[in-house]
């Protein structure tokens, strides 16, 4: 194995540039797109947007490292749409991404950005949907194609699509895509684009594979890194507590009392748990209500509105039922159960620490949860501090070593 620093030396001649423009106007965004952005409620560019849009519009290759949720789609989407020639019939921009969900999402976002440019055609090409539907979309000569690598190759081999006039190729979530085994497919695809195609790579981490592809297909790439620090970063203190079964309820109540928490969301994985927990908390005289998928929509809306207004203090909910609750001053989130999906962890804890307030996320970890927890730490790069609950509800750092997210 090569030592790590050797990998760095292989990076394409990186240039650190990109000034932080403060408005979309300063970035040279055209009136139609500005209108669309206004309609979407985006008033100012995010840091990654202000830093990469200039170089992209200048035709530079870009490799950008940025965590999720920093606004990467618009960062490449706006320059792509702005530079399209609507008269051309060839595919001008190609976006590769790892999953069908992302594919659909990106295509939707781009369509919104192009809402005042009705002539712009965008197609989404991904596995799992009928080839025919996609063939029809491709026959309409899309300007932009968003695709998962495998399905795109399939269409290429059937000559449903030609990418030999592509101006810009984007690899979104590059690390994820290459990690999922698409590296050969991605190479094959890039090999079919013109040699001077502008290649833009967006990735949460710069893995070995990402660097290899960058080395091979980019020239004098502008390298940009955006951290989740600073303003963007929510102030969430993440705490793990060894507790399971019935113990969790009493631990939770002790903490709520000790910290005098008045605005709390408790997440559980199952509808039944949510109901039982909600009813028990109520019986204990707590100001509480709950949301699960069994409640009729009218009732759910009422509960949500009530929590927003502050009519009660503790909301117990499943992940799905909690979607769309937008409250910005939750003091603490409890993970009564460890979420089934890694990304739920982020969604859940994101309910607190909003709008620059400090928040707290407390996760109960049972004997059998060690691996799930490790996974979450790794996936979410979560910095979770292990603590114990005293009789009076005070939290003390646990003896056991606090595992760090490994990178
Ligand atoms: P990433 O790809 O980095 O994970 P996305 O492009 O999906 O991030 O954007 C994350 C969220 O931020 C989306 O909900 C998007 O609509 C929103 N967003 C993007 N750019 C802006 C902006 N300039 N102002 C406000 N919200 C934005
Ligand atoms: Mg993205």
Head-to-tail CA distance between termini: 18 Å
Sequence stretches where pLDDT stays below 50 over 5 or more residues? 1-19
Q: From the helix content, strand content and strand pairing, which structural class follows?
A: alpha/beta
CATH topology of the largest domain: Rossmann fold
Strand content: 15-25%
Tally of alpha and pi helices: 15
- Using only CA atoms, what is the Rg? 24 Å
Beta-strand segment tally: 15
Q: How much helix, percentage-wise, in residues? A: 25-40%
Please indicate the count of domains.
2
Please tell me the overall pLDDT.
87
Biggest pleated-sheet summary: 8 strands, mixed
Strand order of the largest sheet: 10-11-9-12-13-8-14-15
Bound molecules: adenosine-5'-diphosphate, magnesium ion
CATH superfamily heading of the largest domain: P-loop containing nucleotide triphosphate hydrolases
N-to-C SSE string, H for helix and E for strand? HHHEHEHEHEHEHEHEEHEHEHEHEHEHEE
Which of globular, elongated, flat, extended, rod-shaped describes the shape?
A: elongated
CATH architecture of the largest domain: 3-Layer(aba) Sandwich
CATH structural class of the largest domain: Alpha Beta
């Amino acid at each position: 194995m090569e030592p790590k620093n050797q990998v760095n030396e292989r990076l394409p001649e990186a240039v650190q540039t990109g000034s932080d423009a403060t408005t979309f106007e300063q970035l040279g965004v055209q009136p139609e797109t500005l209108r669309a952005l206004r309609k979407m409620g985006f008033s100012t560019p995010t840091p990654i947007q202000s830093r990469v849009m200039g170089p992209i519009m200048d035709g530079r290759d870009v490799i950008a490292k940025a965590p999720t949720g920093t606004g990467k789609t618009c960062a490449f989407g706006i320059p792509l749409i702005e530079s399209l020639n609507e008269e051309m019939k060839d595919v001008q921009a190609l976006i590769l991404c790892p999953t069908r969900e992302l594919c659909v999402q990106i295509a939707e976002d781009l369509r919104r950005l192009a809402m005042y440019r009705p002539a712009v055609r965008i197609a989404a090409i991904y596995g799992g949907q009928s080839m025919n539907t996609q063939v029809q979309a491709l026959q309409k000569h899309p300007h932009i194609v968003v695709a998962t690598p495998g399905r795109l190759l399939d269409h290429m081999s059937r000559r449903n699509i030609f990418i030999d006039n592509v101006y810009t190729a984007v690899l979104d979530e590059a690390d994820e895509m290459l990690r999922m085994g698409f590296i050969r497919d991605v190479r094959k695809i890039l090999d079919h684009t013109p040699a001077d195609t502008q290649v833009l790579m967006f990735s949460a981490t710069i893995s070995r594979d990402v660097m290899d592809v960058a080395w091979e297909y980019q020239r004098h790439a502008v390298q940009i890194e955006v951290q989740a620090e600073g303003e963007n970063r929510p102030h969430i203190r993440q705490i793990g507590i060894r507790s399971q079964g019935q113990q969790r309820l009493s631990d939770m109540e002790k903490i709520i009392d000790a910290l005098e928490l008045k605005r709390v969301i408790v997440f559980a994985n199952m509808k039944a748990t949510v109901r039982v927990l909600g009813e028990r908390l109520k019986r204990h005289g707590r100001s509480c209500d709950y949301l699960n998928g069994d409640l009729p929509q009218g009732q759910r809306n009422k509960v949500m509105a009530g929590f927003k207004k502050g009519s009660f203090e503790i909301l117990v909910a499943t992940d799905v039922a909690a979607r769309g609750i937008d409250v910005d001053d939750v003091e603490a989130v409890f993970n009564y159960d460890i979420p089934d999906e890694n990304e739920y962890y982020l969604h859940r804890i994101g309910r607190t620490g909003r709008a620059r307030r400090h928040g707290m996320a407390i996760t109960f970890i049972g004997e059998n949860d060690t691996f799930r927890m490790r996974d979450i730490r790794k996936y979410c790069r979560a910095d979770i501090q292990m603590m114990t609950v005293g009789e009076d509800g005070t939290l003390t750092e646990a003896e056991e070593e606090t595992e760090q997210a490994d990178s």
